[in-house]
Amino acid sequence: MADIPARPPQRTRFIDILDGSIRAGRRIGLLSRPRLEKQALLDAAMEATGLDDFGDRWFERPMEVLLDAVRDEARLNAAGEFASEKQFHHILRDRLYAQEWFKRHPEILERAIARPVVIVGPMRSGTTRLHRLLASDRRFSHMRSFETISPVPRPEFEQVLAGEKEDFRPVLARRIMKVARLANPRTLSIHPTGPFEPEEELGLLVASMWSMKHDAQWHVPSYARWCEQQDAEPAYRYLADLLRLVGWSQQVSSIRPWILKTPQHMMDLPALLKVFPDARLIFTHRDPQAVVGSAASLAWNQTIIYSDDVDPGRIGREWLGKTETMIARMRAAIDAIPADRMIDVQYDEMDRDWRGTMERIYGFLDLDIEPAVPGMEDFLERSRALKRHPHQYSLAQFGLTQEEVTERFRDYVETYGIPTEDDVGHVAKKRRRLS
Predict the structure, then answer these.
(1) Average of pLDDT values for 401-412?
(2) C-alpha angle 84-90-95 in degrees, rounded to nearest 5
(3) At residue 246, what are phi and psi to the nearest 5 degrees?
(4) Which of 243, 303, 369, 420 is an S-S bond match for 362, by CB 3.0 to 4.6 Å?
(5) 0.85 surpassed by pTM
């Protein structure tokens, strides 16, 4: 990695221009400063929709903690404040619409979510690749990117189902992705996507003001530490209800198992298993040096959009600690999971032999892989087209050293037999849990 710059990349001029325009609009009275206060945001959503039922009000406490952290710690620029207000409004409006759908069609909440396949791994450990390979199999159900952004259909969606209107959500997703490319084109190189690409269910947790999406885009450490002390079960119960709504809106059979994945599950396995007690779990593992460096790079490239005061060393420390916490919590939870309900997959194995690795996974799922292979091959071809530029990063950009990361994760690497850069091509020796 000698050709990687010593410091992480900076944001594009687009954000500086947008930020300056918003500040100018405020000075001349065309724009007002967003009110990032809970009641003001709730009131605005109710006024916009004419509705007042947000469902389970559990979300209000994490919302309060998050808003406090955004105001006190995130140091948002004008563009960041503008974007955060829009994000909160979008989430709250969708909660109001969701309750209306549940009242209009109570059968939605009766839909089964049987034996979901849940991919669990740290950020940047190959979960997206595995998720999209499995999602290419039509025997499974999966979220699409536009549904993660907008999981709740608009009130006129029944006209969409009748073929009388176009679903606006993919249109909105395209617009958001276009702005994201202008704001920082690297984010879509790090995580290539499109409106209809398979995507994780992170937006369904964000709907409860929960998940590490927030601390991957804003510097909100007090919110992150608070979440680590809470029981996430209410957020996962609401996720399940939204998943039922997404399945209903897709008009697919509830018999088809869902493919789920988001790194947040590393933090919340007990809650996930209470809500999905028959889930089958695929754990992904990758060299912690790559995981920490890549996660810090992803967080950096998002945070610099919203704030002018971002320190790469601070981000490096935050994601080193968060990765350590994720792995510790995963390891503390797995002893309660029956061995026949989980399987381990190495990032390097998938790189080296994706077909052989997927055959092992399909054996675990007790499914014939052959009907899925054409879809998988098509995905791999499309993914090469989506990812035009490699994701470049280094630990040094974020004030970290290989020695420090190696020492912090030594036991994890040895226990799970994770190949590392230090192995120089041979697999680490200890394989206690790999089948």
Answers:
(1) 96
(2) 130
(3) -65, -45
(4) 369
(5) yes
